[in-house]
Design goal:
Layout: E1 3-8, H1 18-24, E2 33-34, E3 37-38, H2 39-48, E4 53-60, H3 65-73, E5 81-85, H4 90-99, E6 107-110, H5 120-133, E7 135-141, E8 146-151, E9 156-162, E10 168-177, H6 178-191, H7 198-203, E11 210-213, H8 224-242
Parallel strand pairs: 1-4, 1-6, 4-5, 7-11
Antiparallel strand pairs: 2-3, 6-10, 7-10, 8-9
Length: 243
């Protein structure tokens, strides 16, 4: 079974903060240095480590394609790690990367480029689940009480408390059969639907999506404090690998 991985990495990183961006030399968090390497490189390494991954397609902004390709070529085989131009949104970027693939890939996994702390065991678990069911995501239980609200011009009011036992917090990888993901993107484009993740688009096709338990360590780096956590997790992971 051939598996492709898509890493959308065309975001502008507007939530990271000006001070952190200036310190890192870039406003785009996927290129900020973490333990000496761009966050993107850490994430790519996690999937390169899996012998089940046939190709990794990274979608970046058009003006970044050449230098990102050169950076990746210094460490990875060009045939296994590719770079394509992304779009103005995550959805467009993933669709552009998906269009570069063919049906020879049975499964396609989409993973946030700024989730560098994913572990190989979880990657393989969600691969296995998707191979069996056709659609699977990584998620963790909701631990906080979640409120449904209505927003007015000046006030936000609680309308309901949602049962936590029925809620999970979605992470990535999100893995789907190639033909199913293609159909989901085609349907979304035709209907003008914008999904918050790939699962939301697949769900519209009345397809059941399985959930594989994730980890609190599989953080998405979006704000300055997340860099400190990622640094800690990667250091602990490196120590564990050496012991």
């Amino acid at each position: 079974m051939k598996i492709a991985v898509i890493l959308p990495a065309a975001g502008l990183g507007t939530r990271m903060g000006k001070a952190t961006a200036e310190k890192a030399g870039t406003s785009r968090k996927q290129f900020m240095l973490l333990d000496g390497s761009p966050i993107l490189m850490h994430t790519v390494r996690k999937f390169v480590a899996s012998d089940r991954v046939g190709v990794i397609v990274i979608a970046v902004r058009g003006e970044d394609t050449e230098w990102v390709r050169e950076m990746l070529a210094e460490e990875f085989e060009s045939g296994r790690v590719r770079v394509v131009a992304g779009g103005n949104s995550r959805q467009e970027s993933v669709e552009n990367a998906l269009s570069s693939l063919g049906p020879e890939y049975s499964l396609v996994a989409v993973h946030d480029a700024v989730r560098p702390c994913i572990d190989l065991a979880t990657i393989h678990k969600v691969f296995d689940e998707a191979a069996e069911t056709g659609a699977a995501i990584v998620a963790v239980p909701a631990v906080d009480t979640v409120k449904q609200v209505t927003r007015g011009t000046t006030q936000v009011r609680v309308r309901a408390t949602l049962p936590r036992e029925k809620l999970v917090m979605a992470q990535t990888p999100q893995v789907f059969r190639y033909d199913l993901l293609v159909r989901a993107f085609e349907s979304a484009r035709q209907d003008g639907f914008i999904g918050t993740d790939e699962s939301s688009m697949v769900e519209r096709l009345d397809v059941e999506v399985s959930v594989v338990p994730g980890s609190d360590r599989n953080i998405k780096i979006t704000k300055p404090g997340d860099m400190e956590l990622a640094h800690l997790f990667l250091r602990e992971e490196a120590r564990g690998a050496r012991s």
